Amino acid sequence: MTVRIGTRASRLALTQTQQTADQLAAVGGFPVELVHIRTDGDVLKGSLSQMGGTGVFVAALRDALLQDKCDVAVHSLKDLPTGPALGLTLAATPKRVDVRDVLCARDGLKLADLPSGATVGTGSPRRAAQLRAARPDLDIRDIRGNVDTRLGRVPGLPGNSTDDVVEGKSCDLDAVVLAAAGLHRIGRLDAVSEFLETDVMLPAAGQGSLAIECRSADAPRKAGSTAGSQGVLAQALAALDDPDTRLAVTAERALLARLEAGCAAPVGAYAYRKGSLLHLEAVVCAVDGTATIRDKKATDGLTEVGATLLGIELAEVLLARGAADIADLAAS
What we know:
Monomer. The protein is of the alpha/beta class. The protein has helices at residues 11-28, 40-43, 48-51, 59-66, 125-134, 147-151, 180-185, 232-240, 243-259, 304-320, 323-326, and strands at residues 3-7, 32-36, 72-76, 88-92, 101-105, 119-122, 139-142, 175-179, 194-196, 210-215, 267-274, 277-285, 292-299.
């Protein structure tokens, strides 16, 4: 059988999907083919919140799965809504890569070195809020576009195709902020002037992780269950799943779900396992950066249930400290 793998057609999506396809083929011993699916997020213009949130990048892929146009879909995990998708299962979370955000600035400048009033582009309310908290004197601009388009807004970065200054298009900003994982996957880490540590900027829930989704009937069967499959594809998907990554993103997504945080909510979350404990840290910011609530918890319950409870418990702490008062958590 040939396993059909659905993907968006952007350079980043194609790269990370091809890498996943190669791994599945190597483990499962079956041929694979990529199926290009166009999503609303690839077509519509404007800010992410105006388009309806992160779900615009996954809805068409999920429809393709349910309509048997592909067998597997590969997403950036941070694009997945936290609610369940009827008939579909998150079958594998491969080992997570760098979770950090990065600054890509002209002249190799770091965040602390940017002059007052410097223009910094991002399409993420989470990044914008934490940037304003760290540097309230910066001019944060809302931008969209694929990775290459956004990097093209900063003059002098390696790989840029032009040096022409065109407002809103090229070389018109002092810096942009992107995810390290995406730049790594497409080979553009040479554009990074600074990796922003998590004490400065907590990532989005699921950042640095991929989500491999399939129809529930094709998903790996769990111990003690009769649901799912024990077929070749299911076994290959199970082999790609990294348990520590799954625990971490389960905690992060549970926190988002309990906060009822929409795609435009300025919320950062990062979980990681260290020894016998799963740690989770989260932040909720006012969009203008003037108020921040940040806290952390840990658990020794190293199961998906334990990770879920950790996320819920930390969300309760943030809510008790007034998170809903400083940010519109339902923003979408």
